[in-house]
Specification:
2 copies of one chain form a homodimer.
Chain A (H helix, E strand, L loop, with lengths): L8 H15 L4 H14 L8 E2 L1 H8 L3 H13 L3 E4 L3 E4 L4 H20 L6 H19 L3 H17 L4 H20 L3 H5 L2 H13 L3 H26 L4
Chain A binds a DNA duplex (30 and 30 nucleotides) through α4.
DNA sequence: GCGTAGCTGTTGTTCAACAATCCCTCAAGA
DNA sequence: TCTTGAGGGATTGTTGAACAACAGCTACGC
C-alpha cells in the first residue's frame, strides 16, 4: 500500500475519478469541441456566424484536421450546421426547431417526473437547489443567473429518471435552447413567470404527487413554447 | 420562368429536395460513416472488434483523416468506443447499458403514445404495417425478419410524437439495441412473445385508448429488459 | 517473482499540397 | 434591364507523408 491506509479505499478512488476528467481532458479535438461549444452557447459566436477553418485554426493553434473533427461533433449536437463546400455556421434555429424541441422536452421531462417512484432525499435536494438559486438571483435582479438556474432545474428534473443517456440528451437540448434564447427575448420577461411554477413542481414531487407535478410541468412547457414561437414569428420578417 | 409554368411552384421545389439527398450523398466522411454504421449494426464487425485505422483506410480507400471524422460520428452514436491512444472498438454493451437504454425507451415510447391526440389514419397505418410484416415473417419462420419488423414497429410508435429529433434519437437507440442482440439470444425466443402484444397496442391506439396502450407498452418494455439483463448476466462470467 | 529499460506497432497531430466547389465580378447578348 | 456565361479568387474536401506520444510486449538484471 503506497497510499495512506487510514483513508478508506473507496474515498480516494472517487476523488481521483473527478480529477481524472480534469487532467486528461481527452484529445485536442475534444478540447477544441468543448471550447467551441462553450463559446457558441454563451453567445460569443452568434447564430448564423461563419466558423472559418483558417481563422479558427490560427486562433486556437490546431490543425485543420483536428478542427474538422471538432466540427463533426458539434454538428451532431446541432450547434453548428455543416454545409457541404460552403462551411460551418452557428445554427440559426427556426420556429420548427422550437416546436420540435419542446415536443421532445415535454415527453422527456414529464416522463422522468411521472415515472418517478421512490425519490431519495438527495434527488429531491438536487431539484430544490436550483429553484432556490433562481429565487435568490431574481431577488438580486440578476436575470441571466435566473436563466442558468432554470436550466439547471430542468436538468435535475430529467436526472430523476436516473439515465446517463437521458442526461446527455438533456444537456444537448438545453444547449440548443440557449441558442434560441440568443435570438430573442429579454431574460427577465421570459424567466420570471416560471419561478413560482418551479417551486410548485418541487413541492408536488416532494409530496409524492408525481402525476400532478407532470401536469404542471406540461403546462409550463406549453406556455414557454408559445412564448418563444410568438417571439420567433415576430422576429421572422427581419430575416 | 424556365420551368413549366403549369406546375405549381411549391410542387417541384419539394421534389427537388427529395432528389437532392440522393445526389450529393454528403462528404466522404459521411459515406464512410454510413457504411460502418451498417456493418456494425448488421454484425459484420462484432462487439469488441478493433477497428484498425490502417486496415480500414486501405479497405475503404480513404485517408486516415477522413476515417477519423467518421469515427467521431459513430462514437457520438455509441456504436464505437474511442479509447485514447488505444484505438476504436465496436462497443460491447454492459448490463448497465441495457438498463439505461430501456429506461430511456420507456420514457420516450410511452410518452409518444400517451401524449398522442388525434392520430391520422396514415399514422395508424404506419404503426400497423410493421405489425403485419412481423406476423407474416413469423408465419414463414423468418425470425430475423420478425426482429427487424419489431424495430420498425417501435420506430413508428415514436414517430407518433411528430418530432424529427425524437425520430433520430430512436434510430440511434435501436441501432445500439441491435448491438446488444448480437451478444446473445436467439431471435425467436426473444421476439415471438411480443407479436401478440404489438397487435394489442395497435388496437388500443386505434380505439383511442392511449393510456391503456402506454401501460401495455410499459409492461412490454419491462419484460424485454428483464429478459435481456438475465441473458447478459448469464453471459457475463464468460467475459 | 519483480521492477525496469527498451522495442514495436498504433494512434494523435501537424503540415503541405491539390482537387472540387462556391461566390463574386464583369462583360456579352437579347 | 435582365439573363447568361466565363473567368478568378477564396474556401472547403481529401490525400499522403511525417513525426511525436503512447500502450503493450519482451528481455534483461536483480
Amino acid at each position: 500500500m503506497t497510499v495512506n491506509e487510514n483513508v478508506g479505499a473507496q474515498d480516494w478512488v472517487t476523488k481521483l475519478a473527478v480529477d481524472r476528467e480534469r487532467l486528461d481532458r481527452g484529445s485536442a479535438a475534444e478540447r477544441v469541441t468543448e471550447i467551441l461549444r462553450q463559446r457558441i452557447t454563451e453567445g460569443f459566436f452568434q447564430p448564423g456566424a461563419r466558423l472559418s477553418e483558417a481563422a479558427l485554426c490560427s486562433a486556437l493553434g490546431v490543425s485543420r484536421n483536428t478542427l474538422r473533427e471538432a466540427f463533426r461533433l458539434l454538428g451532431k449536437d446541432r450547434l453548428v450546421a455543416h454545409e457541404l463546400h460552403r462551411g460551418v455556421f452557428v445554427r440559426v434555429p427556426a420556429e420548427a426547431d422550437i416546436v420540435d424541441l419542446y415536443r421532445m422536452r415535454s415527453i422527456v421531462e414529464c416522463g422522468a417526473v411521472r415515472d418517478l417512484r421512490h425519490p431519495s432525499q438527495a434527488q429531491i435536494e438536487a431539484v430544490r437547489e436550483p429553484v432556490r438559486a433562481g429565487l435568490r438571483a431574481a431577488a438580486e435582479g440578476d436575470w441571466r443567473a435566473v436563466g442558468t438556474a432554470d436550466l439547471r432545474f430542468h436538468q435535475a428534473l430529467t436526472a430523476l429518471a436516473g439515465s446517463a443517456r437521458l442526461d446527455e440528451l438533456m444537456r444537448g437540448m438545453l444547449a440548443e435552447l440557449r441558442l434560441i434564447f440568443h435570438l430573442m427575448a429579454s431574460p427577465r420577461e421570459f424567466h420570471e413567470p416560471y419561478l413560482a411554477r418551479n417551486e410548485e413542481i418541487v413541492g408536488l414531487i416532494d409530496a409524492g404527487e408525481n402525476q400532478a407535478a407532470a401536469r404542471v410541468l406540461a403546462g409550463y412547457l406549453a406556455d414557454a413554447e408559445r412564448q418563444l414561437t410568438e417571439a420567433a414569428r415576430a422576429l421572422a420578417p427581419s430575416i
